[in-house]
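Please supply some protein, with fold tokens.
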Amino acid sequence: MAFRFFRLRVALLGGGFRGSFGKALRTTLLYAILAAAAVLLAIAPTVLIDDAQQRSAVDLLIGGAVLLGVFLVPFFENRRMLEPRQFVQYPAGPGAIAGGLLLSSVITWPFFLLVVWLVALTATRPAWQEPAWAAPVAFILAALFAVASARVMSLLSRLIAGQRFAGALRTTGVVLIVALLPLAVFAGATVFAPGGFDAVDQVAEKLAWTPFGAPFAAVEAAGAGDLDAAGMYLAIVAAAIVVLLTLWFALVAASNRRVERPLSPGVARSGLGWFERFSARPAQVIAARQLTYWARDPRYRVALFAIPLAPVFMMLAFWVAGAPLTTLALVPLPVMLLLLGWSQHNDIAMDSTAIWEHVASGTRGRADRAGRLAPVLMIGLPLAVIGSSITVTIVGDWRILPAVVGMNIGVLLVACAVSCVFSVLTPYPATRPGDSPFVQPQGAGTGSGLAQTIAMILALVLAVPPVWFAVNALVDVEFTENMWALAFGIGYGLVVLVLGVLIGGWLFDRSGPELIAVTQIFD
């Protein structure tokens, strides 16, 4: 069985080179660039850092980050992983399938790149070459740990999320990666700042006692002559490998006995855009239609492009008044999220040509309210997480990240909740579908201005609690205060949003015919 897996791996390995000459050339250049990047990652600390002790700490941090990435990334991105369930029809037991998949994982491009990086590390660190056995043993254990962790996390992801939520899981992974990039840049800048290596030493000392940093700490300890410490570090990695292998064989056995829940027959497979990614349920169908509107309708795109302008003018006014940059950095994102959520306060009028379908089909109001939130939340939540990390990078203190994230998510959810109610309670004439987004609709007057003003005021009032706790956490930077601001902002926002959906849905159910009459007058 293992021989069959090896043959399959070799065939998959060469798949990128098959086809046209241009495709083979592009694949060759891609992996050559990745291999050069791996070598550069190994060489960079020796070029940038002269002090041996500081370089060792940085090596441990980089090595731990690489192994941590190998551990986490397959959980969010596992499309290129062979799944044990694919081979359940073969005349082989779960143990043979698990062993074959595990052994054949060494015939993959990511494993080759990992080996290139480990070999480059060994070749460019003369201090690690004595005793001669230390580096090979440590790095073989690191490679085994990487293979086992990638296999376990990939299969665990498939068992937990399955095909149904695979897309959402990949999106979450991309958002997390992008959100962490500014923090990584800030951490790199902190390392080379005065006194930055003291923090690096503290983090490296703690990371050394985890399976991610232990192989590199073992090599460093062996090179310094402390063989007892090196043995302890190697034992940590070996124990982690044993745990992962045990989980791997158990998960393969469970996977081969488990049938994944089939997708709903109402889900289209291809050709329907957003509709093929949602099941045939009222809220999901409305969400797919709203996402299609936001992608194609210029009325929504113009509003989306206009939202970032308000915080820019606010920052210019504050800057002219002499406000410090670190304070100004906290302003734009919550203002943008507030405007993004508030922009949906007249969404029923914007969708006036289709609202009759909801009333005629008996669609529940809460399904209408929840489905229309999809575009705002799909844009706003990643923006809140990514923008918060950029904000704390500009401020220069990553400790306030939880408070900033809690404040921004709370503001977004509160604004969405207000829009859920006011779009049903006070609809006013909007630009009709197909018209220019700059055309002024007939009948817009004091009613529209009053609805906009009240919705904005109520959103600002309801946003005060998460902003208040976040400001307290920013003034008194403590871990407990920041985590409380994060939990309160998200929890409070969710409670208000659920109430907004329920109240808006109740109003929709009671006034469906009236909404049709009003929106037909607008048209």
